Predict the 3D structure of the following.
Amino acid sequence: MTSPADWGLPLGAPAPGASFSDLLKSLGLSPRWEVPQSPVRDLGAPEATTVLASRYSEGVVIGGDRQATEGHLIAHRRMRKVFPSDRMSAVAVAGTAGLALEMVRLFCVELEHYEKIEGAMLSLEGKANFLSRLVRSQLPLAFQGLAVVPLFAGYDPTTEQGRVYTFDVVGGRYEEHNYGAAGSGAVQARAFLRTAWEAEMTEADAVEKMVAALVAAADVDVATGGPDLRRGILPNLAVIDADGVREVSEERLEEVARSSLGVIR
Amino acid sequence: MNPGFYVTPEQLVRDRAEFARKGIARGRSIVAMEYREGILMLAENPGGALHKISEVYDRIAFAGVGRYNEFETLRKAGIRQADVMGYLYSRDDVTALGLATAFSQTLGVIFSHETKPFEVELLICELGRNGQPNHMLQVSYDGTLVDERGVLAIGGKADILGGALRERFTEDLDLEAAIRLGMEVFAETESRPLDGWEAAVLEEGSARRCFRRLAYAELESLSAQQTP
């Protein structure tokens, strides 16, 4: 019997399996991460700065500031770095903004594609492993100075807890026991969470501490954009628990940001 | 020299159509109907493990009757096409009509060129955006494409089911009433006890993906109330 691939018809996409990126590759449409070897030069591509995620008693909170920088200039003030990747997980990105956003888009379609083809969601571990593969495929670009570092968080229904994964530039994947951060303000954000983090935090506590960590990062790192109440720019925060992903509302964030900023001396 | 047997094109098409229709008639049917908040798809499905109804894209669902392996191949191909289109262009550029046309072309070519036609009938539903009308499309084994409003049935008993449903269908049913109506019509059409249901809806909610499977238990309890 002839396979669908032999029909040469609109539906005869020659790709077996449930992977969307393999499908794109077989169609010659996959994003080209490879770049020709050339002397390193500064492209001046915008960079996304600080993202962080933290576990709490019932799940996990993931968030990020809104600023993208281009050298010492601000490129975008309202960039979104936190994206729900499916019903049970979310991804946040730091590094070269254009490449990072494309990576997130591909990652989200991949998860949904797998779920529709196979009729079941990938395990949280499976999603993290796939993301690590995407980061690794960027390695040649990282050598050119165009690195992308994501942060992945989700609720694992099998262990009934939130989980946080951090990545390094070569695609290394590390599960964090309590919290993780990436980007230029990551050191400050982690330093803040080191003293503030508690295993039995409630969701409200976790949201407050995440915003406070971002404020602390923005206070020291110039590339990180803290809450800007005058312009109405607030961080993006998503909470993931047994009921799935939901974004923290602007009103709530404004209230929390106001009290966090008030503490700054 | 042996000239071989000559078969007229009319005869060839008739034979193939008859073969496909027989195959489809052996399986169970599926109905789809619009209700107040969206579109309901209801199938009799004793096992429940093998789905006949599934999600294709944000606002598009697929259902197939006939040979499982054949409509499963088409379902996956449809998901691939939709995801590639949505990734390359925009999520808004994936439409039921585009997909149904691709299915129709594929089935049409298989019908006339392959050794045997596919014994399947497909149903593609799309929930209208911002008050636009919904789409319900039927694709037959030979690639025939039909666009319907309100009610659509596919499968061996599609004509009887569709007719009975159309008689009693009213607009603005709520979901439970729509399920009840569907179950009633199935019970009347099939003169045998029905075992097991599968149902899914396309319904506007807060999420981007509008497809939702109805829980098996929920359907069973509705079905138990049905048969006294």
